[in-house]
Write a structure and sequence with these properties.
single chain, mainly alpha
Length: 314
């Protein structure tokens, strides 16, 4: 009965959505990159860069939304570097992505230490506050679960619809999907494979950085080392779980968020008789299981990981 009570609690689903929010940003960003044929393993470092850049901008006096923009720009810059290495130069997407993660993480920590050399505890900012939407926030169950979140959570949900619309209802989205499946056909139509892939990687990386910005400007009120905690790698797995579809990406992020929120509450209920490490690994085990069940049927972009040069034919 305790498990049922947890699952039927509005507070549980509100927590699940909060935990899922940075994953939603990250998985949408990774999805856009991979739909264009480029794997971006720099996501973990881009999360860190977005978290630090957005927080530092607000700490130095910028507004919260300007901090969000700064985070997106930081992510876009690292995405541009990744695109130059992989799209323009045709280097290994795996090696470049891992290099971006190491560079972005180290640069973020270096900037933090340089800007605040004498700080012993993370300085605080005033983060986004939960919204109170008249009428909607007072609805039973769905009100506290959905309509008492912060503006960044609402932005993440809106972006799911925007990305889905662009990918499946616009010529640009058709071109992005085509360049990830058959770049030769895209080039035959007179479109630039290189420009489409670079644009997708920069845009996707900017969205990834918003996941980091959520952590420092909405979930917490400070930047500290280790706060990203592998969320970027989770997003890479969730893209496969989602079969590169925005709607399923949202479902996957919510599923992981629910697993994580569930283990926290379950640990509070029976943590005295079960080692805490069991609860900490529970969401990852369940996510791996879900991934295994759907990965075999995943319809991946056919040109993913394949560099492309003008005039190339297969």
């Amino acid at each position: 009965m305790e498990v049922i009570d947890i699952l039927l609690s509005a507070n549980f689903w509100a927590a699940a959505l909060r935990i899922a929010t940075p994953l939603i940003f990250g998985v949408l960003g990774a999805l856009i990159c991979e739909r264009s044929g480029v794997l971006n393993l720099g996501i973990e470092g881009i999360f860190v860069a977005g978290a630090m850049a957005g927080w530092l901008a607000v700490y130095l006096g910028a507004s919260l939304w300007l901090g969000v923009l700064v985070a997106a720009l930081a992510g876009g810059l690292f995405g541009l570097l990744h695109a130059i290495l992989t799209v323009v130069l045709g280097l290994s997407q795996h090696v470049s992505g891992i290099g971006i993660t190491l560079l972005a993480t180290s640069a973020s920590y270096f900037t933090y230490r340089t800007a605040l050399p004498n700080v012993t505890s993370p300085p605080r900012i005033v983060p986004f506050q939960p919204l109170n939407i008249p009428g909607l926030s007072d609805l039973p169950f769905i009100g506290p679960a959905l309509f008492q979140q912060t503006a960044m959570t609402m932005l993440a949900l809106v972006l799911v619809g925007v990305v889905a619309f662009v990918l499946y209802r616009t010529p640009l989205g058709l071109a992005i999907r085509a360049v990830g499946d058959n770049p030769a056909a895209v080039e035959a139509q007179g479109l630039s494979v290189r420009a489409l892939r670079i644009g997708a990687v920069v845009t996707g990386s900017a969205l990834m950085a918003l996941g980091g910005a959520f952590l420092t400007m909405s979930a917490f009120d400070a930047f500290f080392f280790g706060m990203v905690n592998g969320r970027g790698w989770i997003c890479i797995a969730l893209v496969v779980f989602a079969s590169w579809q925005p709607g399923k990406a949202l479902l996957g992020a919510l599923l992981f968020g629910a697993f994580d929120a569930f283990q926290i509450r379950l640990q509070a209920e029976i943590g005295s008789v079960v080692p805490g490490q069991v609860f900490l690994m529970l969401p990852y085990l369940l996510s791996i299981l879900a991934l295994v069940l759907v990965a075999r049927r995943a319809d991946y972009p056919r040109a993913l990981l394949h560099p492309w040069f003008k005039g190339q034919r297969h």
